[in-house]
Amino acid sequence: MRKARELLRLLFSLGLSNRQAGRLVKVSHNTAGRFRALVDAQKLDWGALEAMPDQALQALLYPKRHKGTACEWQPNWPHIHQEMQRKGVTLILLWHEYRASWPEGCSYQAFTEHYRLYRRRLGLVMRQTHKAGERLYVDYSGLTVPIVDATTGNVHKAEIFIAVMGLSNFTYAEATLTQKIPDWTASHVRMFAFLGAVPQMIVPDNLRSAVSKACQYDPVINPTYHELALHYNVAIIPARKRRPKDKAKVELGVRLVQRWILARLRNQVFYSLTTLNAAIHELLIDLNTRPFKKQDGCRQSVYQTMDLSAMRPLPDHHFELAEWLTALHVGLDYHAIVDHHAYSLPYHLAHEKVEARLTATVIEFFYNRQRVATHERSVIRGGHTTLVVHMPKAHQRYAHPDKERLLDWAARLGVSTVGVVQHQLQRRHPEAGYRSCMGLQSLTKTYGETRLEAACQRALVIQSPTLGSIRSILKNKLDELPLPTTVAEHQPITSHDNVRGNAYYFGDSSC
Description:
GO terms for molecular function: nucleic acid binding. Belongs to the transposase IS21/IS408/IS1162 family. Residues 4-84 form the HTH IS408-type domain. The chain folds into four domains: 2-122, no CATH class; 135-310, Ribonuclease H-like superfamily/Ribonuclease H (Nucleotidyltransferase, domain 5), CATH 3.30.420; 323-396, no CATH class; 401-480, no CATH class. The longest helix has 32 residues, at 430-461. The chain is an alpha+beta fold. Helix 18 crosses helix 19. The chain is built from 19 helices and 15 strands.
C-alpha cells in the first residue's frame, strides 16, 4: 500500500493532476482517476486517508479484485529484452514461456510486433522540460575535502552535499562529516532554509540514507527521509538505478561545484567543518551570481523571478530528526528492546512485529501504521520501562496490589485475618507486606478460609502475625487446638552454684 498512499498524497495533499501524480508514482492516469473517484465518493480528505489503516485503505481502493487484467498478462518487455541477449534464446521460445504463464495472452504476431516497438523506443532520448519550482535534484559530490584535527593531526574527509533546482540551476552546497541519515536530513533542513521555500519534488540518488530498497518502479524510501518529506509536504522521486539522465541536473551541478568551489579551495587547509562551510558559502554566492553564457541573468536571478514564486512556503515549525526502526519483535513479556532497554507495549501485541520512531527524548511504537505506545526514552542499559495500562489484569493485580482490595478480602474471612493483613501493610517496606498478603491468599487454596481465619487468630494471640508462623500453624494443625488463655511469663532464674553473679565480670575473685 506504500505506492497507493503516495499516490493519494500527491492527489489530495499536493493537489497534482491525475496525469502528474500517475507519472510520479509510475501508474496510469486512469488508476489515479479511479482512486480520486473512490475517495470523492466517500467525501474523505487527506487527513482521514493518512490515518486510515492499511486494511481499510485497501478495502476502499480495491473493493473487488479481478484476475487476469490487462496489466497482469502484459509481457515484461525489459525482462524479455534482457533474455534476448542470451545465446540461443529466441522470441518464439519466450512467447511459449509467456503463454505457459498466461494461456489467454496475446498471439505470437502481436507479441513480436510489441517487442519491435519496444526496441525502437530504447534508443530514444527524452529532452527534459523543467517547470518553475517543480524539481530539486540532490546528491553528494564524488570528491571530498580533508579536515585536519589541529590537536592530533588526523585527517577526516568531509562529504560535499549538493542540490540544484531544475529550472534555474540555482545551487546549494555544504560539507558534512558523513552521508548517514542524520547528516543527510540535516543538510536538507539547511538547504530548505537557504532556498527560503519548498519545491514540489526532490530527486535524490539511490544512496541508503534516501532509499531503503531501490526499485525502478516502486522504490522504498528511508522512513526518516519520508518523514522529512511529510513535514515539508514534498514528493520524493528517486532517480532510477543506472539512469544518469534522470539526475543530469545534479550531475552538472556536481561538476560546477567541483570546478568553481572545490578546485579553488584545494590549496587551503581546514581545521573544522565550520570554517570549510564558511569558505564554501562564500564561493557559492559567486557561483549563483555568475552570468549565464547563453541566456540573460544568472542562477540567482532566474531562481528569484521564476522558481521562488512557484514554490511552497516553509512549514511553521522546525523538523525534528527521528530515527526509525522496523520489524522489532515484541517478546512474550510484551516488551520490545531498543538500545538495550525494554519498553512495554499493549500485551495483545506479544509476538508481533512493530516499528519504532526514536527522537532524542521520546520513543514511539507503531503497529499497522497506528501508534500503540509512547515512552520517555531511557539511557539505562538492561533496564525496563513498563506502563500499567499495557499489562493484563492479572499482571496488574500482582505487580500493583490494591490496599483496599486486600482489606476487603480479609474482612470476608474475619477480624483476625484483617488484623494480620493490617500488620503486614504497616511494614517498613510495603512491597514485602503486599507479597505476604498475597501469600495469605494462596493459603486459602490449600487449607480453606475457615482454617486460615483460625490460624490468624492464634498468630495474633502468640504475637507472631507473620506468613511463616501462619503457614506453620496450618501445617501442624495447631489451629485446631484450643487457644492459650495467657502468655507464659518469664520466671525468675533460681539461684544455685552454677550461676555467676555480676561481680564475676568485674574481676571479683570471690565469686
